[in-house]
Amino acid sequence: MLTYFNLKIKLMKNSKLLLMLFLALSFTFVACDDDDDDTPTTTNTGGNTNMGQSIAEIAIADDRTDSLVVALSRAGLVPTFQGAGSFTVFAPTNQAFVDLLATDPAWNSIADIPVDALTDVLTYHVLATEVKAGDLTEDTYGTTLNDQGSTNNENTVLEIDLTPNPRINNAANITDTDIDANNGVIHIIDAVITPRTTVQLALNDERFTTLVSALTTFGDTLVNTLSGFTASTIFAPTNDAFQDLLDSNPAWNSLSDIPRATLRNVLLYHVNGVANVQSKDLNDNDVIATALAGSSLTVDLTSGAKLETTSNQSVNIIVTDVQGTNGVIHAVDAVLLP
Question: CATH 2.30.180.10 in the chain, residues?
Fold first, then answer.
């Protein structure tokens, strides 16, 4: 007798066999229609036997990614990874999808996940360029194919950390790397990752822990405000920037020493809550209104990207376009003072 678990595995494998047959027939028809004698040019495979296969074919053949193939098929994304391109796919394992289904009592199988939501999640696992493991660096962001970013449909980012171990969004461990395909590369991960809001991006990045502490000083008030924006631009000071602020006043040894009204106004001065302004949208002398009533910032692009404050600061923008689902973050190297 088949158990429920064994039946699910059998159905997934049958789905994969049908996809493999479809792909094989597709390639047969293409070959029959190709009347020229040109030999395809391939890159140096370094001995990798997968280089003649697409990302879709490799995923179909790999027992670790049965559920991923079922999800891609349901979302209609198999042809994307069957065709030409240069993708990086962070591929969740079967157990990762089991864990995802357990997060919602209405989801008993991948078929229960709404197609739009599933598409958003799957495209969030893909970069539009090929990035090998050796090219991954600490505290960097990769722009995904997911375009759930605010009202402008900007492409959202995922964060890469290497310490203490390689992982994505501080949630998914990278367990296997550099599975080469003829249209990109696959890295195996042990969790399904989902697009992040600006607040979630800041929480995941250890460079902004002091900013997060400052926001949570006010309980859920400011956190909920930032999370509730549908389009926003946040200029996020790094931990070093906050330390410089504390060092500027002998009476300030920690955030708790800064008067609450002062700290609240300073935090609001870093936020525009009505527009998703990426770096490509910034022009010299642009004036950006902030969430602090009656205040603004001026863009200075004459020598790098800077912000001029009403207190005559000139602050460098050091990281740009950290795009979340409800806004974008740009990191700055000083706390902005109104």
Answer: 4-34+43-189, 198-332
pLDDT digits (tens, 9 = 90+) for 97-119: 999 999 999 999 999 999 999 99
Residues facing 298 on adjacent strands: 287, 308
pTM over 0.90: no
The one-letter amino acid at 202: A
Q: Which CATH superfamily is domain 198-332 in?
A: FAS1 domain (2.30.180.10)
Domain 4-34+43-189 sits in CATH at 2.30.180.10
Identify the bridge partners of residue 297 per DSSP, sorted by sequence position. Answer: 288
pLDDT tens-digit readout, 275-288: 999 999 999 999 99
Tokens matching residue 62: 């790999």
The token duo for 288 is: 């950006």
- Helices first, then strands: H and E counts in the chain: 11, 14
Structure confidence at residue 22 as a pLDDT band (50, 70, 90):
very low
pLDDT, residue 263, reads: 97
Q: Strands 327-332 and 233-237: what pairing? A: parallel
- Separation CA 17–CA 22 (nearest Å): 9
Q: Please state, in angstroms and rounded to a whole number, the distance separating the CA atoms of residues 25 and 29.
A: 6
